[in-house]
Amino acid sequence: MVEETLKTALKEAEKLGVYIIGRFQNAKELAIIINNDRVERIINEESVGLGVQAFTREGYCGFASVDNPNPKSARELVQKAAQLAELNRHYGGEKNTAVFGAEKFVTGVDDPKPYSYNQMDAGELTKLVRAENKYVLDRPGDLSVQTVYRQIIENWRIVRSDGSVARFDMPRAVLAHNITARREGRSITTRSAVGGTDIGILLDGQRQQESRSRAEGMAGLAVQLLTAPQVKGGHYKLVIDYALAKGLAHEAFGHAVETDGVRTSILAENGKLAIGTQVADSKVSIIDSPLAGDWAYQPVSANAIPRQSVTIVNKGRLAAGLGDLFSAAEAGVPVTGAGRAESYAQIPLARMTNIRIEVADPVPLDKPWYAVSPEELYRLLLENRLIAPGEEVYYLSGYKGGQVNTRLGDFVFNCTAIYRLGEDPVLYQPGIFAGKTLSALKAIRAGIGDLVTDALGTCGKWGQGVSSSGGSHAFLLLDQAQDITIGGA
Amino acid sequence: MDLVAHLESLLLLYQTNPPTADLRIKGWRFSLNEFSSVKVGIRDNRMGEVYAAPSIDKNFSGDLLIIWPGDYCSHTVVNSAVIKDMPQKLSAWRLGAYLDPEGAVLLSPQSLPLVAVEHQEVQGIVNGNQAPLFELLDRYRHELPAWGVSNIQAGSQAGWGVRHIRTSSGLAVSYAQTTFSTYLSADGLFSQSFAKRRLPSAGEVDALIRETGEVSKYLRQEADFDEGETTVIFAPQLVESFVAKYLLPNLSGNNVVNHQGAYMMNDFLQRKKVFDDRISVQINPLKSFELSSYLCTREGVPARTQWLVERGRLLTPYLTVKDSIKAGLRPTPLPQGTGLWLEAEGSRRLPQLVSGLESGLLVYSVLGLHTQDSTSGNYSLSAPQCLKIEKGKVIGRVKAVISGNFLQHLADSATLYGTVPGANAPAMQFECKAVKG
Asked: From CA B394, how far away is CA B218, in angstroms rounded?
């Protein structure tokens, strides 16, 4: 039915004299929600749909989408999209002819899958998720724990009028705990999560151990934060963990080099990405690429173009953009297959996948990042002469998301907790990290430990949410900078 | 095929005469939306460009709850493909069903109010002439440059559809509803939006354009401020966002019964005073053409006004049927969208707050609100576009990082409130910490 539907769409487009990109998506999701050792809800979701983006010969665009497509509705969809393209022309809309010169691709990606989507039924999965919830609930303190397990599989089939065809799957899974601690009328919520592509995050011993260690840490932190004071807002020397480093890369840089926003990006000059600009120390690089087995894995763009690994910042210099088909040329950079869409019902935008900061010659670390205490971190910094004895340094831990205004170059991300480092570290309430795109990377002084790239989340842009991930070395050291502010009392 | 009738027949069949005994259904309810929407946008002054091209979407989906014997439940999202395949899916759903005695309760049908949720002009745009969407954007493009705006992002969207709610306990309601939204953003400095179930009036469009132009003009002038304890005014649109972030989850019955919010069930039973006397919070799904309005919840609870906080005292969280049973209280209407209305007695008008401000900041937007912990009420946010106010006059733009506790601001008798006609929330004036950002 899929092939027939897409074939019908292409035929109708040819008949009407329009060029189309057709995106057929089949998606399934299972969500299991456990509240304090009780099953709150188990939800099954399946959807299937087709989105058609039509271009007139001059390049005016219209888009139409429908759920449960079949050959008849596909024909109607192409007609609607073509009508909207004509309406666009009538109102003096903007033309875009990039697709007519695009390279043709025929690509299908079949990644090995250790576990299939239906490997285990909902009942068995629920027992496993409930066990994880109980483990966290039994940690010390007056805790309430909500555990959410989600597994998702998307099958994409994309066709273009030039004969391009792409086929790929996007499996992902996440196990997250929202942990609320209370005492004497106060309450604090922290969160921990592990992600991947399938139920391996529940079944593999090492992943389970890691998930439990992280959750245990967050449960203890929630209790401690109940009585923690607020840090004094200001500018400080900082250490951030790898997940916050992902936030730095994602918010400070990633969005600013997505080519659909370059016209007004802080990193552009005269509407083109200012390639070659020194934006960081020469030991710092930023790379974006799809990683197999990763939460945000997408090997092919929603425009049927294989997604490339892109070195956005190369040894301190802006080197490349995340090039979507429809905006890369205007931005002055190559197409890198960066187009992603939340679903068949949306027009793809230039997006990141897994974005990470790499620093040359990192300081070695002999244990996993989550096993490093603030005291140990302090001693490591002293031993490696990265800080002086008695120097005021704050350690930010636990990424909670961020936001950016790419036009003005203002970005933020938030942490779960702040420590003033020392022989007796002091814990503080979280404070926002606010910075400027053009100067934030220049503050990076050193990387500590190996790369950890599984900081996962959902990136929201223009009303669409897509999976995102990334990271850096276990910790990054940042110099004090006037353009980096920690919010506080 | 009438999918709603088809689904209803299938469910009745499995209730009365299933193919095998293990697939006998005890009860069910579903809420389905057939919805079409059209939209077009401006990106960087370019109307209808490829990323904001005129678009139309047609969708039929909703949620289905199946109750099996022994109070086991299956909860699924349904659409036309799933409905057509249901006999095959039911076995899998039965295997995955979970025990949920409180979730397995269905309400008897109750009489529903009349609420204006469909606007004919909006329906006309979706089903026929999309010109008004383009014409509105054209106005923005032509009028904002007069205010010195050089970069415009904007969009307009209209939706129309029919909502169907059915339960095996006898509720059967279908009603049409519309949505209309438009937003505009000037030079990345300031943005405004309109979102209701009707078109904006000419005066409302004039006001959108005027305020966007005026405020963005002020935000182009740089100013400075002294760090420390600062008097801050949050504009109504920002207060609305804070209400959604801090009150919606903490007044959620599900969070209350699971001890995952700021308040415990006892706090409501004892009518604990948590806010200042002037503050009340309600759900009101009866307001004509508001996005938060509807006829009944998906469980069949009729729309009615429901006070959650009255004169500073907690009355009830908002409760689904399941959570109402756990709480021992009556189920309530639920907030739709942001859907909570904050009312402050003795409010002045916003211009009075501004003119009465000796020295402070007027904050329209922040970065990072979604990253904050709502249970604590704490916030630490970047506000890169604030207006410095001195002796009641706008001086210019400053960038600040602000910190405080929103729940405490609502409890503080020194907090002032300012209304703006047509706004969904009042402005708020209070003291918080501010450093230069």
From this structure: 7
For tokens 């209407």, what's the residue?
Answer: B333
Q: Are A58 and A89 in contact (CB under 8 A)?
A: yes
CA-nearest residue to A55 within chain B is B50
By Cβ distance, the residue of B260, B262, B367 closest to A405 is B367
Strands (E), A322-380: 339-340, 349-350, 354-359
Pairing of strands B72-79, A38-55: parallel
SS3 A324: coil
Beta bridge partners of B404: B379
**A-B C-beta contacts closer than 8 Å:** 248
pTM recorded for the entire structure: 0.95
Query: pLDDT for A257-290, tens place per residue?
Result: 999 999 999 999 999 999 999 999 999 999 999 9
Q: What is the CA radius of gyration of chain A?
A: 24
Please indicate whether, in this complex, the C-beta atoms of A126 and B130 are within 8 angstroms of each other. Answer: no
Contact (Cβ atoms closer than 8 angstroms) between residue A317 and residue A279:
yes
Spatial distance between the Cα atoms of A413 and A430, rounded to a whole number of angstroms: 11
Given a contact cutoff of 8 angstroms between Cβ atoms, the answer to whether B285 and B63 are in contact is no
Closest by CA to A475, choosing from A244, A193, A132, is: A244
Cβ within 8 Å, pair A180-B381: no
What is the C-alpha to C-alpha distance for residues B309 and B320, in angstroms, rounded to an integer?
17
The SS3 call for residue B85 is coil
Which of A43, A92, A144 shows the shortest C-beta gap to B260? Answer: A144
Name the amino acid, one letter, at A301: S
Question: Which tokens belong to B148?
Answer: 């010195």
- Cα of A149 vs its chain's centroid, Å: 18
Query: What is the arithmetic mean of pLDDT over B102-114?
Result: 96
Is the per-residue pLDDT at B1 higher than 70? no
A160, A10 Cβ separation under 8 angstroms: no
Distance CA A407, CA B283 (A): 37
DSSP A258: B
- Counting Cα atoms < 13 Å in the Cβ hemisphere of A175 gives 26
Residues 6+ away with beta carbon under 8 Å from B128: none
| R_g of chain B, CA atoms, integer Å | 24
Summarize pLDDT for A377-404 with one digit per residue, the tens.
999 999 999 999 999 999 999 999 999 9
Q: How far apart are CA A434 and CA A233, in angstroms?
A: 11
- For residue B219, report the phi and psi dihedrals to the nearest 5 degrees: -75, -5
Task: Tell me if residue A430 falls in helix, strand or coil.
Answer: coil
pLDDT in tens, B19-46: 999 999 999 999 999 999 999 999 999 9
The minimum CA-CA distance between B126 and chain A, rounded to whole Å, is: 12
Amino acid present at B351: P
Please state the φ and ψ torsions of residue A198, each to the nearest 5 degrees.
Answer: -165, -170
User: Do residues B215 and B350 lie in contact, with contact meaning Cβ atoms separated by under 8 Å?
Assistant: no
H/E run at residue A216: helix A205-225
Ramachandran quadrant class, A173 (left: phi over 0; alpha: psi -120 to 50; beta: rest): beta
Q: Which residue do the tokens 């599989």 mark?
A: A153
| Cα distance between residue A88 and residue B130, in whole Å | 10
Indicate the DSSP class of residue B50. Answer: G
β-pair partners for B427: B418
Minimum-distance CB partner of B367 among A98, A327, A403:
A403
Residue partners of A59: CB distance under 8 A and separation at least 6: A95, A96, A97, A100
